[in-house]
Design goal:
CATH superfamily of the largest domain: Hypothetical protein af1432
CATH architecture of the largest domain: Orthogonal Bundle
Oligomer: single chain
Helix content: 40-55%
InterPro entries: dGTPase (IPR006261), dGTPase-like (IPR050135), HD/PDEase_dom (IPR003607), HD_domain (IPR006674)
Order of helices and strands: HHHHHHHHEEHEEHHHHHHHEEHHHHH
Strand order of the largest sheet: 1-2
Structural class: mainly alpha
CATH topology of the largest domain: Hypothetical protein af1432
Strand content: under 5%
Protein name: DNTP triphosphohydrolase
Keywords: Hydrolase
Largest sheet: 2 strands, antiparallel
Number of domains: 3
Number of helices: 21
CATH class of the largest domain: Mainly Alpha
Length: 503
């Protein structure tokens, strides 16, 4: 079996209903035609779509932009074809399909929903794997057989491998597990006893992960991204760094004054700040400039392979000129001029970052084979810092998210109570019933050791099947559907027939 056949093996066969002849294009078409992809239009990127109108990105528009950037990167790397082929290939259709699919498993309410579902899944539902958005995406694109039917999108091995930003399970695969490496690959850190913070597949999809990664054996370490996954991951970083800032400029959240004060204070007081202890900086992190200094030290701690003080200083100054002196200098008023300013900022930065991307045959553990130049890597870190410092840390956003967290917990509890009620079994939502059957077939025969638990640990597979079904059900809702479903389950909704959720 040659490399191309291996990259196709176990995945898409071009069926009569498929519109493309190229299997990788078939994958792309199956993704964009799926309800999983359409759902992303109602899922939070940072602010819930229901509370922000059309001004900010949702998970669907974000995915489309990641796909656009990813194709641009592949074109940029056309001169590195020989090296990319040695690494296992870099097909533009594979990269685009993976970029479109990378957020399919994202639950309602963005990263907040991901953290809440993970905690509830492990603490209340007895799932050792918990929940992880990347693993949930991988679960969706695999093809599970049940009762003669294929569940999931059943994509080619190449696209599934390209989707694996983190090609490991939470605790057990590969061996040694990447969380035990020094340094750890990006995302693999976490509690050594509890598993990685990020991972690409649940134990139930481990055999599929192995099969998708088989063509890359001997070319890449088990924990390394494929070149195509590395392109997708880099494109995601670029889209996040640029387009989320655009959003919050549009809605007036990102203001020139506070950002300017923060960056200018660090440049002015850099020498003094470098003399302060980390504890003192954290205690005064709200003072202008102190959070930038904490960022600099955090980058040295995590990514000393690339972090450089001169490059960091230059990046802060470049972002200050371009963002503070450019985009944020004129408040957004919805005018054509304002939209042109945003479009120019986005195009200029996207091109700058794509042009700085290169392929490295033997990258550091903390990087993929496809990576940004050092100057642009530092600029992306500063842009992401501004988003975190001036958007994610806002008290009004925290207020909103605390309510969303409670909603998700209450929804999981309500569905669990319904699922274990023997008098209501016949009236369970058909999809929830099917998901339980699927999960039962998947966990049958698994042991505690498969999950990295102590030898002899007994698993309550019935409870695990119910738990995974509930998580799958909730993760497939939009923000609005989650709200509407809890309203109905709480007796607060007066509508019997509604499109707020699908049963």
């Amino acid at each position: 079996m040659d490399l191309r056949e291996e990259r196709l093996f176990g995945g898409t066969a071009v069926a009569p209903g498929d519109l493309a002849g190229n299997p990788f294009r078939v994958d792309r078409d199956r993704i964009v035609a799926s309800p999983f992809f359409a759902r992303l239009g109602g899922v939070t990127q940072v602010i819930s779509p229901g509370g922000s109108g059309l001004l900010v990105h949702n998970r669907l528009t974000h995915s489309l932009k990641v796909a656009s950037v990813a194709r641009g990167i592949v074109e940029r790397l056309s001169g590195d074809r020989e090296l990319l082929d040695k690494l296992g290939g870099c097909d533009p259709d594979v990269v685009e399909a993976a970029a479109l699919a990378h957020d399919l498993g994202h639950p309602p309410f963005g990263h907040l929903g991901e953290r809440v579902l993970d905690r509830v899944a492990r603490e209340r539902l007895g799932l050792p794997d918990g929940f992880e958005g990347n693993a949930q995406s991988y679960r969706i694109v695999t093809g599970t057989r049940m009762d003669g039917k294929t569940i999931g999108l059943d994509l080619t091995a190449a696209v599934r491998a390209a989707l694996l930003k983190y090609p490991w399970t939470r605790r057990t695969y590969p061996d040694p597990h990447p969380r035990h490496l020094t340094p750890t690959p990006r995302g693999a850190g976490g509690d050594p006893m509890d598993g990685s913070a990020k991972f690409g597949a649940y134990v139930t999809e481990l055999a599929d992960l192995r099969q998708a990664r088989a063509p890359f054996a001997g070319r890449l370490a088990d924990w390394q991204q494929t070149a195509e996954a590395s392109v997708m991951d880099t494109a995601d970083d670029i889209a996040y760094a640029i387009h989320d800032l655009e959003d919050f400029h549009r809605v007036g959240v990102l203001q020139q004054g506070p950002v300017s004060t923060e960056l200018n204070a660090w440049r002015r007081d850099a020498a003094t700040l470098r003399g302060m202890s980390v504890e003192a900086l954290r205690a005064t992190s709200r003072r202008p400039g102190h959070s930038v200094e904490l960022l600099r030290r955090d980058l040295h701690r995590k990514d000393d392979w690339i972090c450089d003080d001169d490059a960091f200083d230059t990046a802060v100054e470049h972002v200050r000129q371009e963002l503070v002196g450019g985009l944020l200098a004129v408040p957004f008023d919805g005018s054509i001029d304002a939209e042109e300013t945003i479009a120019g900022f986005s195009a200029r930065w996207t091109r700058r970052l794509i042009d700085a991307i290169h392929v490295q045959p033997d990258p550091p553990v903390r990087s993929g084979h496809v990576l940004l130049g050092a100057a642009q890597w530092h600029e992306v870190q500063v842009l992401k810092f501004i988003h975190h410092r001036f958007v994610l840390e806002r008290p009004d956003l925290a207020l909103h998210q605390r309510g969303q967290a409670r909603l998700l917990v209450a929804l999981v509890d309500a569905l669990h109570a319904w699922l274990v009620d023997p008098d209501e079994e016949a009236r369970l939502p058909r999809r929830l019933h099917d998901l339980v059957e699927l999960a039962q077939s998947e966990v049958a025969g698994l042991t505690g050791e498969d999950y990295g638990l102590a030898p002899g640990t007994r698993l309550d597979t019935a409870a695990m099947a119910r738990g995974r079904a509930i998580v799958d059900f909730v993760a497939a809702l939009t923000d609005g559907q989650a709200v509407g479903l809890l309203e109905a389950l709480s007796g607060r909704s007066r509508q019997l027939w509604t499109d707020a959720f699908v049963l």
